[in-house]
Amino acid sequence: MNMKLPSFNVKDLMREAGTTISTQVSRVVQLTEEKLNLTNDKTEYDSNFEALIERQEATKNLTEKIIKDTEAILVPNPGNRVEDFIFEKIEKKKPQRLSNIEYLGLDLIEAGGTFGSDGAYGSALIKTGQAEQRLGQCERDFIANTGICFIQPLKKFLDGEMRTITKEKGVLEAKRLDLDAAKSRVRKARSLIGTQSAERDLRVAQSEFDRQQEITKLLLEGLGSTQSAHLRYLHAFVESQVRYFAQCNKIMNELQKELASTRPSTPRLRINSEDVDIVDSIEDNWGYENFATHIETVNITKV
User: Fold this and answer.
1) Which residue has the higher pLDDT, 286 or 86?
2) I want to staple 244 with a disulfide (CB 3.0 to 4.6 A). Which of 68, 72, 114, 142 is the partner?
């Protein structure tokens, strides 16, 4: 069975390659001349378009900062954040790791079992450890909820709409360089034929630039409508955070009530023939910082 190979026109390929290289060289030359202030042929955008670009850049930069700061709160360890980022890129499940509060809970439970769960201290350690583990689970749920309702939508916005706008801005800048290079060629043309050819290229470059600017402008103007969606994401984040802190507060209040019966009595001291609570006496009379300077001036006896 004979397979028919596709035919290539070498001359067309060479011509296209030559045109591409020529265009790239022209852009580099134009950009270099602008950087060195060697040309006045630079198209300026109107103030309205410049304002749209500034708003787009601010939106991009601040959204990136919000995501970064939120992730830093959820996963404080930079190494863990890098590891999670890598797993996301290779589309694998993030590693399940215990948080610091969960490690504390495990160690408290272990200590309580070692010291004896029948004793007041051991029992309190176990109860506290279990509460810390529940806090850890609440934290884990909060991280997951925030990722779904806040971080992921913002990242999707940056990877989708914002990336498209950035790409079209790059195309517009390329078309702007082509336009200004065409203007420069018209100005430098020495013959009638050269001038006519340069002016024809200028008309084409102007048309392509105008079309690309209109496309980019429409995308930039559409950014305003995204803020209502981002506001919903923010509300969802706040609600998730309120729910998280409420759950934590409930867990700790329940633990405090549970441990209240095992709380040891406050030590009492006899100071200058008067029985007082040691904690209240230190705080009311001297303050903890100044207690050491007064301890030698009074006659203290443990009751």
Assistant:
1) 86
2) 142
